Description:
There is one protein chain. The chain contains 13 helices and 15 strands. By secondary structure, the chain is α/β, with parallel strands linked by helices. Helix 1 (20-33) links the parallel strand 1 (6-9) and strand 2. The termini are close together. It has helices spanning 20-33, 50-58, 96-99, 117-129, 151-156, 210-214, 222-243, 259-267, 274-282, 284-288, 310-320, 336-342, 357-368; strands at 6-9, 37-40, 61-68, 74-82, 90-94, 136-140, 160-162, 181-183, 193-198, 270-273, 293-296, 300-301, 324-329, 331-332, 347-350. The protein has a six-stranded mixed β-sheet, with helices on both faces. It has a five-stranded parallel β-sheet with strand order 2-1-11-13-15, with helices on both faces. A two-stranded antiparallel ribbon has the order 7-8. It is globular, with a radius of gyration of 21 Å. It folds into two domains: 6-42 and 297-371, 3-Layer(aba) Sandwich (Rossmann fold); 50-275, Alpha-Beta Complex (Glycerate kinase, domain 2).
Amino acid sequence: MAESPSVLVAMNGFKGSLSNLEACQSVSKSLTELEINHSIIPIGDGGNGTGVSLKSALGGEFVSIDSIDPRARAIKAPVLCFPNSINPHRIYIDSSSVCGYTLIPDKEKKALEASSRGLGVLLKKVVQRWNSTLKELWIGLGDSAISDMGIGMLSELGVVFVDSKKQDLLPTTENLSQIADFWKPKTHCENISFTILCDVTNPICGPQGSAVTFSPQKGASKDEVILISKGMNNFASRIEHKLHRSLKYIPMTGSAGGLSAAFLSFFNANLVPGCEFLLKEIGFDEKLKNHDLVITGEGRTDLQTLKRKAPAVIAQHAKSLNKKCVFISGALGEGSDQIAAELKLSGLYECGKEPSASEALSQKTKEIYPSLKIKS
């Protein structure tokens, strides 16, 4: 182990408060003042900031594309082109840039009204613009406001939904339970390989399904959760009947309100654990080997963190490399003792959000660091 302690700062974003890069910079500020050797690497699991993580390690070029947000308001969304925007063979898209939870003010969050149409608009424009060179699409899922199982996106790509009377259905979350059939047209997407970075392991249906677990966070009432669950079960059944693809209890199909299920069934996408995929692509383990301690964290750490959320994956990698790991998160929820024990953490801390998320994170880092004995 090095004579002079060295810290790797690998923060996830604080939803609604700090991006992953801003969180890393807040911790870095205090470590610099303490004269601690360190480096930063923003981390994501498919949600907000994953594109920033990829660009910081792999390069590429961001391009802004016109689209719409979950409430159909005009928005510009960044896509990351590799190796550049002239002739990209691979493009990464954060779905949260058009479907994101933070795009809608709390007072306007209504789970039945939020739509994935913006991602469909974005995909259509990307494929049309770069059809001659594009071979791969990486799409990060996470931090979404939607619960429509991707039917908004699919409708923008030409899929038509009908009810039991063969009448066209609007692609809304509320109408999921009314889908009796659908038609899938051929698109330019058939020649593109899709890799979908999922931020959770939850399936689309069942007691740990997408609607039950996540829709309440998106503004759904108890009755609406029941309606959404029924709708997702119905659409999954229709997909199984027509496309011969069983979805209901497959891990990760519940990610981003079921967007992952849509990609799996309509585009034969490869679903991958988002953070594991990212860490492999950026060579995280090799970077961590040159440090004594990793500091990570997120907006809220609770039992959901153990389901492959980025900080948990970071902790598992630290453990495998015999490195210490500390969490500094905005808030600690249910199961913090269990999390610390299972992940073998050297510390689990809550920084709060006062006077601001950035200042609170920086102050907590400065407060706890002197007590961390990381030298051999």
